[in-house]
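> forwarded from #structure-qc
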């Protein structure tokens, strides 16, 4: 089912103010830990919830999720891209293909989906920044990566979104509305003098 413990070295752990951590195996069979439970009872309740969820899932569903989690990022992303029927024929589809083949597949392509962690994503972003990738491109590539990983979460290949804790630099696009205008504005109209008839 799982276990609960405190990470502190206090002499009396049951009475210390530190939070409890639970350790369990997820639906894919990987060991996970969650921390931040203030009382032993809340940690136990979480373990019971996890156990009930795991026991209630059909075996075929669990095996399907395991199979998806074992796919490499390249396999999963290409599968995801082909399911995007509404954008495949447009410039967005071409942009997705370009971002995948140029940036994502070379760096993350060999990682299994279940092995992608926040640290992996931070390394990827740092590598792109070191290669002086333009901020707009970095923003678009990260958005695509996040979209693919959110799909993996929805399909059950990942238990949680690894992009949640990632902090990126803010990006403001410089579109036509934000650029100063080089065209001369006509002078304001002069008021008409009052004329008496």
């Amino acid at each position: 089912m799982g276990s609960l413990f405190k990470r502190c070295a206090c002499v009396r752990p049951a009475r210390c103010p530190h939070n409890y951590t639970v350790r369990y195996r997820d639906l894919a069979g990987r060991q996970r830990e969650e921390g931040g439970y203030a009382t032993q009872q809340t940690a136990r309740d979480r373990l019971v919830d996890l156990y009930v969820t795991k026991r209630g899932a059909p075996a075929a569903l669990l095996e399907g999720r395991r199979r998806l989690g074992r796919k490499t990022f390249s396999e999963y992303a290409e599968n995801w891209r082909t399911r995007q029927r509404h954008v495949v024929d447009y410039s967005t589809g071409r942009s997705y293909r370009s971002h995948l083949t140029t940036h994502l597949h070379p760096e993350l392509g060999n990682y299994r989906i279940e092995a992608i962690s926040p640290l992996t994503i931070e390394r990827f972003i740092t590598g792109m920044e070191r290669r002086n990738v333009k901020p707009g491109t970095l923003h678009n590539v990260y958005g695509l990566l996040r979209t693919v990983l959110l799909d993996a979460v929805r399909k059950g290949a990942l238990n949680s979104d690894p992009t949640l804790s990632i902090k990126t630099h803010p990006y403001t696009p410089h579109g036509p509305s934000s650029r100063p205008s080089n065209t001369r504005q006509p002078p304001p109209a002069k008021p008409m003098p009052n004329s008496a008839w």
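QC bot note: The beta strands are 3-6, 20-25, 31-37. The radius of gyration is 26 Å.
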